[in-house]
Structure formats: structure tokens, C-alpha cells
Fold:
Amino acid sequence: MARPNDLPSRGFAFVLTCAILELLAASSAPLLHAQTMNLSWTDCGASGFQSISSACNTNVGTNVMVVTFTDPTLYNHLSAIEGFLTVTAVGDTLPDWWKLGAGECRANRLISSADFTSYSWCTDFWAGSAATGMSYISHPGGDLSKASLQVAVAADTASTDLLTPGLEQYAFRLLLSNGKTVAGCNGCAVPVCVRLDSLHLYQQGVIVRRILTPDISRYIGWQVPPCADPPPVITNLSPLGGAWGSTVDIFGQGLLGTTSVTFLGAFLGTGSATFSIISDAQIRATVPSAVTRRAIRVTTPFGSGDSPMEFGIAPVPAVISPICGPPGTRITMIYPVSDDITDIRIGGPGGMPLDPNWVIPVGATTGGIWVQNPWGSATGPTFTVKPLDPVTGSNPAGAEVGTSVQLFGPDFANVSAVKFSSGVSAAFTPGATTITATVPAGAVTGPITIQWTCPNTPGPSTASATSAYSFYVGAAPAVTGIAPTSGPVGAPVDITGTGFVDAASGGVVRFNGVSASYVFHSATSLTATVPADATTGTISVTNPTGTGSSPTPFVVSGVVSVEPMPVSLFFDPPRPNPTSDQVEWSFGLPQGARVNLTMFDLHGARVRSLANGWRDAGFHHVSWNGLTDRGERVRPGIYYGRFEVNAQTMLRKVVLLR
Structure:
């Protein structure tokens, strides 16, 4: 077997190293961590030196590096040890004097040995029964300042090698010759650091790989004061982002002695993470809670290093405010979610997207707020979508201050305030789709605002919407005068009084029950045109609150003709048709009968009852102003008037325009 002054062949070193690596690959035993390792000049541990100098004036002599370790485990038949070392020039380039590989300037000037016959400071468990091999590579990975060294020690399988727990044991020696120093290879005086990276231990039958941490030192210096580990350097993270509780691999140098890993984006707590050391170049950390996108810091006994890139955090279900409201509501995250949001939707990943200002879109339905960024996604609290048009009608359509009215709408859950057009709040009794409110003092005609207050954390949130529907505030009309008091069909008539409104606001003028067109001047003045089929009688004016009649009748003059009685039953088409205001229905009864005239929508749903009861023989006219039985204005579209009398049913269509 090889002795201290023998040089194993390159073939032996390669074969020995490969044999050990094959044993490693074949083993499924867990990888345990031994306790300590040391590298020193001359002898082991505290008995050696961490730095030596040379005058570089001789080709004679040998400099000995000693590798030792301490382990708490009792081993029988420890079969092999591998050691990994790195040689680093303090300058930019490794000098020729340290180029010790095959074919290099000082080839064969570095040999390995496991013979510690003349050593006594530490325990020699090999007892001379081991052979060594070595591999030396300059400029690994193209780094001109470094060389890598791998040493393999294999025990004589016939021997019994007992490792005593807790004692510092010799692993192997490296003998560095001074040969070719003078008039040979340049660079002996260049400062160099040698680092023991790790030791791997193997046992026959059971292969145990150990990554060892230093006790006294894992560095020795040549022509330089004792070397030390630099602060850790982080070069990469994988992945570059993830959720709380996920793992991230941190890559770099000088990570073996890591004492803490900190995520610098902590907004609660310290950002301290649990971690495991995989190698000097890799550790694995668990992302702590309550952190956002920032760099990661690794700390060792030799200092700290921050990652050059930030670690992104996947979204976390957040607290939002408000938590309810109509389309157009802008929501705010009041609890950090994540940076770099790429998509936000209501109702999950297939829901409707919010605009960049986080505004709830028209057409959205109630659902969770879903957020996505490059590192993940999450669905947060549910946002309850309230109606954009909260009040669709009322009963009555208008009223005086102090009157109790019913308001109709699709969603009155969590209503906390009802405000009339002047912004004055009204007393109200809530219901799911109906609110009973009292018209407050100071209220004026106009739309009604509904405010919702929805439960939320950390506190309730409010939102509001204003109806397109306008509620009339005021008394029923009072007609104080008409001029002239008589005239033919088509003649204009000036009407004075109070509480007048235009036709679009629900106003109607009738001559003895026959609807007439009119021009609205003000709440106290309008001009109506005597309609065809008008007969002598009072003139009535209607607004959403009620109807008022003239104190004197209007006499329809002109050619007097006696309208004959209908000779047969008829139900005429409506006039005008189509219409954007109101429509008049006409029917004739040759004899008195009970009638029913009802409006229906295109789907057959009942809308409004216009006539229901006994009618005398003669010609009859009924108008419809586009309102439902509940006082709600219907949408534009196709509607039907169904006329029923004497077991007969007749239908007429009318088109209502906006």
C-alpha cells in the first residue's frame, strides 16, 4: 500500500475515487451530519498552525497539511473518507507554484497519505491500514484564481478500524513539496488560502455521508495571516417567489455556517425563517408568514449577505373595503396581498375582471375577490354586488312631506339610510325588497339614494347608489281657473293652479275623462288642447300624488251631434301607437256589461289593470301612462291590452318607446 513518501498513480486515485462514489450512489441510507472538522499545518487541530510562511529559497523540504475530524458516533469498520478542498490565490490568478495537477508546472509535488505513525497529538484510527488517492484540478469552472482538490482514503478491508466517539481523529495528510521552487515554477511567495470544504465518511455495508462543519478552523494560509470565511454571498433563488409556508432554495457561497435566514419584507414579526443547510452553496428555507416582496438575508458567524433579487410573495386572502356596493364601487385592500398583481376579478379566475383602479364592473355578480400575481393566486372575501338602480318604483308615485310611502327595489338587505333628493334622510322600516319610508321635511322631487352598511373586518363598510326613478314630493294638483270656459275640439285652454307637472313626470290632463295633450309652462300654468271625443264637463289635472278638477265645467261647443250608440261590441287599436308617453284605449258596448281591460308584457306577466267592473252601454275611453299597479315605470318594449267582456277576449298590441 502507499506510504507517506510514495506517490499513488493518477489511475489509482481515479479508481479509488470512482469506487467510493459508486458506493454512495448505491446507498439509500440517510445523510447524517458529523460534528466538526479541522485543517491545519504540521499537526492536528490546536497543535497545528493556521498560517505559515516560506522564504521560497530552496527546493528541499515538505510542508504538511493535516485534516482531522471529531464525531460523536461509534463506528466499526469505517471503510473510507473523502475530503474536498479548495485552493484560492489572494490575487486574481493562481500562480504556477500552486499548479500541482498532472502535466502542470509542479506536477507530483503534492501527495496524500493516511499514515500517521509518527503523529500522536490526535487519534490515528487508521493505524497505517489505509491507502489514499488524490485528484487536483486547476481553474475549476474557468476560475483562474482557484484549484479544487479531492482526496480519497480507503481502509484495508481485512483490518478492524474502530472509531472512538468524541475524539479528534486523523483523516489524511497532504504533503506539499518545495521542489521546483528555485529556478522552477514562479509564485511561491503569492499568498494563498486553502479551505477544507467537507468530509464524507463511509462504512462497510452502510454508507454514511457526512457534511462536516469546522471546529477550530477549516482554513489555512500560505504566505498570508490566517484565512477566514468571507460573509455569505447569495447568487440566486429558486423559485423567485411563492406562498407563505412554501420553500425556497438559496444558492451562493459561504452558506455552510448559516445561523439565520431572514425575509426582509416582514410587516408583522421579524421575518425569521426555518431552514436546513444542504451544502456550502445551498440552503433551503420555509417562507414565513406576514412577509411581502423583498430580499432575503443569510447570516453566518462571518457576516450577512442579501439576495440581489427580491423574493415575490403569492397573494394572500385580504381584507377589502367596502365589502358591498353597486357596480362602479372602487375597492381598497387594507391588508397587504402582494405586489405585482397581474389580474384581479370578482367571482374567481373565470369571473369578471376589475379595471386597474379596482372598480367593480357593470354586470358583475356577488363573488369572492380573486387576485393573481406571477407567484400564485388567492380568492379573498366575498364582495356583495348591490343594484346600480336601487329604487324601481313607489306607491304612491308621489306624496307630501310626512306621508308614508312604499319604495320598491331588488335588494334592500343591510340598508342603513334612505335619502330623498335633497339629501335629507328619511325614517324607514326595512324589508327585503320593500321599504316603508316617511317623506322627510326638506325633501324635494328627484331620485332617491339608498345606503348599505355591510358587516366587515375590522369594521363595517358602507356604499350607496342613487336611483334613476324620480319620486315626486308635493300635494295633488289644485285647479283654480280655466280660460276660456268653452270652445270646440282643437281649441287651446289655459289652466292655472298648483302642483302641475309635465307629462314625462306623470302629469295628465283630461276633459271630462278624455285625455288631452298639453304644453307645460310651470307648476302653476299649462295650456291644453280640447281633444276629439271631449264632452262638456270638468277639466282634471293629475300628478304623481293625485288629481285636482276645475271648479267649473268646460263646455265643448261647435256642431252639436248626437253620437249613436254602438251597434256591436268593439275594441279599437290603441292611439297613438307606438307612443313614448301615454296611450288611449277605446271600446264600445251595445249594452251594459262587466268588463276587464288589463295590460300584460311580452311574457304574459300582468302589468296594470285599467278597467274592471260594470260599464254602461256606449263609447268608452281609457288611458295608460306606462306605470304598473305599483307605480313603477315599465321598460320600453311591446305590451298587450287584453279586453274581456261577455266571455269574449280581444287583444291589441302597443309599442312603448322611451
Summary: Residues 509 and 541 are 5 Å apart (CA to CA). The mean pLDDT is 86. The two ends are 107 Å apart (CA to CA). The chain has six domains: 10-222, 233-313, 320-385, 393-471, 478-556, 570-656.
